[in-house]
Amino acid sequence: MEKKAKYIWRVLIIVLVNLLMISILSNSGGSVQTLSKVGSQGPEVTKVQTALKNQGYYTGSIDGIFGSGTKSAVTKFQRAKGLTADGIAGPKTLSALGVGGSAGAQGGFSSSDVTLLARVISAESRGEPYSGQVAVGGVILNRIQHPSFPNTLAGVIYQPGAFSCLNDGGINAPIADSAYKAAREAINGSDPSGGAIYYYNPAKATSQWIFSRPVLTVIGSHRFCS
Description:
The protein has helices spanning 2-27, 43-54, 68-81, 91-97, 111-124, 130-145, 153-157, 165-168, 177-187, and strands at residues 198-200, 215-219, 222-225.
């Protein structure tokens, strides 16, 4: 009888501990902020690399793998921001980068993601109608969901040869205010491109292949196609 009572108490304690953990997670928005360091892999590392690259601290590949190059970039960023320069992306470093947690997030994208999307929209569609800017954002987001492309924002944008602005330096130009608005609108689900995964300017395109793609809509100088 005594053994049975001890067993029941153990089960109750385990249940109570599990309920306590569920409660903690619920009160924190269901997310646990991790520490990205050498050897870490995953979406958080991708976001850290993207944020560092956007701010000029990281020049390597956006691969979601925390290696020596990422550590060096994190350390430089920490020194610049007056943080402990240990090369570990802990809560304070993540917060300074705009990565992690729900603060500033929109539609599952962090504030650094929104800035990156706005940066590409601004560079790729400068001078285009506002709806055309939103459409460029829509194409980028459509690619994330398409099996032929990487499944992250950074992966799509930094895919080799995907966007000319990465080759001609346009991505480093000041971001137009309308591009920020267009990025947020695209993230919220607006897609004037009609589901396109490609776009091009026929006056500038040099690839014959792109001319073979079915055109879904034309906005400004851009043809949006599937």
